């Protein structure tokens, strides 16, 4: 079965059989899925497929013993508030959510329905959990980054483009972790001889204006931290970086496949698969308060040599040797 057809059936119908296994008739369980994209986005399709496979491996069948109610926000604040309220009103057994803005809306809407998140940078500072080891409430999940990566992004960017003295750091003000990620880069920047400059990414127009103004001065680069808003612009951002001659590093390797120069970040596909295991455990009676928040354990380095050539850069051989993926 082709991947697109597989996912379209999964997100579009309640009675799509993942597995049958001769199951006895049992109470239908209900899972809400709250995602910061649109249903036909290829990247989210791939990651939702991983979530679906995780449920299947745990013995759940959509339309058999579990129903999935999807809501897609496209990163728009009005959609986030509206769809969070809709999902909570459905009273699901558990909600699976991606991204800090989505989590903020869900937390305002319910303090009782269990929630499993992915793609949240700092759930403690954001107020979603009491601690990583003991979340303490109705929320747990899988972090998508650690603030210590701010220094790593600068280190890698300087290795590829040593002339950089200024970096535009894209910042999503609707995401509570956006300020923390910018602060981490800003704190590390002086040790690399770099000035960090925030650029808003409320929409593509704001990004274009901010990068255009930033690029008027020489020796600039760009950092795109983790966040759902960045993923919405994953095709536009690499093109803007090349247009403005800005060597850029991204938090997600998918940007490199789309023309980004370099990326370093966790394997987000695996987070979706692991989230299914927590959804399974909650459906079987465990409490989110007792399921520790997990940090990424695997990080990937990806480099696009075609983009490096377009920017007139030479990637050090030692860095290429470390890369998990190199696009020629």
Q: Can you give keywords for this protein?
A:
328 residues, alpha/beta, Rossmann fold, 2 domains, 7-stranded mixed β-sheet, 5-stranded parallel β-sheet, 13 helices, 12 strands, disordered N terminus
Concise summary:
With 328 residues, this protein is an alpha/beta fold. Helix content is 40%, strand content 20%. It has two domains: 3-144 and 268-290, 3-Layer(aba) Sandwich (Rossmann fold), CATH 3.40.50.2300; 149-266 and 299-327, Rossmann fold (3-Layer(aba) Sandwich), CATH 3.40.50.
Shape: elongated
Please provide the ordered H/E string of secondary-structure elements. HEHEHEHEEHEHEHEHHEHEHEHHE
- C-alpha Rg (nearest Å): 20 Å
CATH arch. level architecture of the largest domain: 3-Layer(aba) Sandwich
User: In oligomeric terms, what are we looking at?
Assistant: single chain
Major β-sheet annotation: 7 strands, mixed
Strand order of the largest sheet: 7-6-8-9-10-11-12
Question: Ranges with pLDDT <50 over ≥5 residues?
Answer: 1-9, 12-24
CATH class bucket of the largest domain: Alpha Beta
> And the CATH topology of the largest domain?
Rossmann fold
Number of beta strands: 12
Summed up, the helix count is 13
């Amino acid at each position: 079965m082709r991947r697109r057809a597989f996912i379209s059936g999964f997100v579009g119908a309640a009675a799509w059989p993942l597995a049958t296994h001769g199951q006895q008739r049992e109470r239908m369980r209900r899972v809400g899925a709250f995602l910061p994209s649109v249903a036909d986005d290829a990247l989210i399709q791939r990651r939702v497929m991983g979530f679906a496979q995780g449920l299947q491996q745990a013995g759940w069948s959509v339309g058999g013993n579990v129903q999935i109610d999807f809501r897609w926000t496209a990163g728009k604040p009005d959609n986030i508030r509206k769809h969070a309220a809709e999902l909570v009103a459905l009273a699901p057994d558990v909600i699976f959510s991606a991204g800090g803005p989505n989590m903020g809306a869900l937390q305002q809407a319910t303090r009782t329905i269990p929630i499993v998140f992915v793609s949240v940078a700092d759930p403690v500072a954001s107020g979603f959990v009491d601690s990583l080891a003991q979340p303490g409430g109705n929320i747990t999940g899988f972090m998508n980054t650690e603030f210590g990566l701010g220094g790593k992004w600068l280190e890698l960017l300087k290795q590829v483009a040593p002339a950089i003295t200024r970096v535009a750091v894209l910042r999503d003000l609707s995401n509570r972790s956006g300020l923390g990620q910018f602060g981490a880069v800003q704190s590390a920047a002086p040790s690399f001889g770099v000035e960090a400059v925030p650029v808003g990414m409320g929409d593509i127009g704001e990004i274009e204006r901010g990068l255009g103004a930033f690029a008027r001065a020489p020796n600039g680069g760009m950092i795109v931290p983790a966040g759902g808003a960045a993923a919405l612009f994953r095709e536009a951002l690499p093109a803007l970086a090349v247009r403005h001659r800005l060597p850029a590093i991204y938090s997600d390797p998918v940007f490199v496949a789309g023309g980004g120069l370099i990326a370093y970040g966790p394997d987000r596909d695996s987070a979706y698969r692991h989230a299914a295991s927590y959804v399974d455990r909650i459906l079987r009676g465990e409490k989110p308060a007792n399921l520790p928040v997990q940090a990424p354990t695997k990080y990937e380095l990806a480099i696009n040599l075609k983009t490096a050539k377009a920017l007139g850069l030479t990637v050090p051989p030692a860095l290429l040797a470390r890369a998990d993926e190199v696009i020629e």
